[in-house]
């Protein structure tokens, strides 16, 4: 009987969660510094990366956009990880990353 309660709780959680979250909306870090990028919420970093990707790549699907956006977010985050990245412009780093990752030729 306990498993029924667990299943019911899971059903409530699933029904309360939107099936398609707008993970790509709300990016505001286009003009940010590396320091601002580091302290920004992960959702904002991902949405901003999606904006950059959408400008330079024609994604074949939302899954493709998501994958490339996550890769770009990681590239930018790694580039600004140490204190020397604090003053770097995120847009310049994003441009370098999309070239290095082969998204633009």
Detailed description of the structure:
With 105 residues, this protein is mainly alpha-helical. The protein has one domain. 62% of the residues lie in helices and 0% in strands. α3 (42-56) crosses α4 (62-79), α3 crosses α5 and α4 (62-79) packs across α5 (90-100). Residues 3-20 have low confidence and may be disordered.
Major sheet: none
Our count of helices gives 5
Percent helix, as a range, is: 55-70%
- Compute the number of structural domains: 1
The backbone outline, from C-alpha atoms, is globular
Give the N-to-C terminal Cα separation.
59 Å
Radius of gyration: 17 Å
Can you write the helix and strand succession as a string?
A: HHHHH
What ranges have pLDDT less than 50 throughout 5 or more consecutive residues?
3-20
Q: Tally of extended strands?
A: 0
Q: Which secondary-structure class do the elements indicate?
A: mainly alpha
Mean pLDDT: 85
Q: What share of the residues does DSSP label as strand, in percent?
A: under 5%
Summarize this structure briefly.
The chain has 105 residues and is mainly α. The chain has helices at residues 2-16, 34-39, 42-56, 62-79, 90-100.
Keywords:
105 residues; signal; mainly alpha
Reconstruct the topology from this structure:
Blueprint: H1 2-16, H2 34-39, H3 42-56, H4 62-79, H5 90-100
């Amino acid at each position: 009987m306990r498993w029924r309660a667990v299943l019911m709780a899971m059903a409530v959680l699933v029904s309360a969660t939107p099936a398609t979250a707008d993970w790509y909306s709300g990016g505001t870090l286009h003009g940010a510094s590396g320091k601002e990028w580091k302290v920004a919420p992960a959702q904002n970093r991902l949405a901003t990366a999606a904006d950059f990707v959408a400008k330079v790549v024609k994604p074949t699907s939302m899954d493709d956009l998501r994958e490339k956006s996550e890769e770009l977010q990681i590239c930018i985050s790694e580039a600004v990880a140490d204190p020397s990245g604090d003053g770097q412009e995120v847009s310049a780093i994003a441009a370098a990353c999309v070239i290095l990752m082969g998204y633009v030729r």
